[in-house]
Description:
The protein is of the alpha+beta class.
Amino acid sequence: MKANDPSRTSWVEVPKNSDFPIQNLPFGVFRTASNPAPRVCTAIGDSVVDLAVLNYLALFDELEINNTVFNNRFINDLMALGKAQTRALRDRIADLLDAKNGEARDLSWHFLHPMDKVEMLMPVQVGDYTDFYSSLEHATNVGSMFRPDNPLLPNWKHLPVGYHGRASSIVVSGTPIHRPMGQMKPADAETPVFGPTRLLDFELEMAFVIGKKTNMGQRISTAEAEDHIFGMMLFNDWSARDIQAWEYVPLGPFLGKNFASTVSPWVVTLDALEPFRTGSPEQDPTPLPYLQYTGKKNYDLNLEVEIKTEGGQAKTVCRSNFKYLYWNMCQQLAHHTVGGCNMNVGDMCASGTISGATPDSYGSMLELTWRGAKPLQMPDGSVRKFIEDGDTVTLKGWGESNGVRIGFGEAAGKVLPTLEG
Ligand code: CA
């Protein structure tokens, strides 16, 4: 992949520590005040590149891509082109933005927009969404709070536990979230009560997006999985702990999870993440053959969560890493499809909360404050056991290798009071 060459630089200014050097080139969808039609774009430095205009200027002609994929509300059709074409497209964009290439530079006023002047839209039309539970540390922490004698259930090390979630409420970064109402049963109450959740939480996760469909009955092996995964995003699986605790028996998460999930606006291609490939934690016991794999299937990606109180300063409350996950994406996808469940382009699978071994790497308030027992001190003097109205939770993520930082931007959401009525 030519686009990954760490020696490349762009004629577009890329600030130090930008998530978007020429080696990244993620895909998103944007619009502007002067042109409200959504179109597909990429990011470089602090700028957004309108790919529909590059296509209109005939700069992609040599690729022979179906050019309806650019003037589009979502990137699904682009992903469905397949990796041979999307790789060629990413390489071509890198060439057009390369400091050594003047082909597009003089026309840049047609297609380059300051990122802070555009509106980023939800980039993927998500058909189905699945949430896994693949961090050993998270599963052990949560399990030990609710079942001190028996934190990890017997199936956990034999299969990547997950549930089918709700796609309709996955929203792009910047979309406010209303505190959900629901039914819960406080520990000291004999009967359940109804009201706004008192235990609103975030979950630090990453999601992968399917770019290649399968038919019913077809399985995806761990070796084939990467061909079906187009890219990754940051994913905050907002959770209402009190609603969840009361409802989850015996069929699992429902209203405690389905009111909102926040994703970053950029889909970073698996290709761009190649430099960060790393091994996974050793699996003992050895999983069944269909979950075994060869090679390095995990990624070394730093993850952070910030909480900003209303009018206050942001505080980083968690520093974790994607590489901690016990079950990798290839195993998750192999398991998801082993019964013949078909996958469609745009389907999203989230990792589950990504916690590390140390308390500052826990990926949820539930773990960070140990269910409220150890509140977090905020810069404005207030304390947090869970998330309060007016708080903004922001997820960030990036890898760094050979002096090149490939980032995901951010997945931010502000919590508003429960909707009246
Ligand atoms: Ca989750």
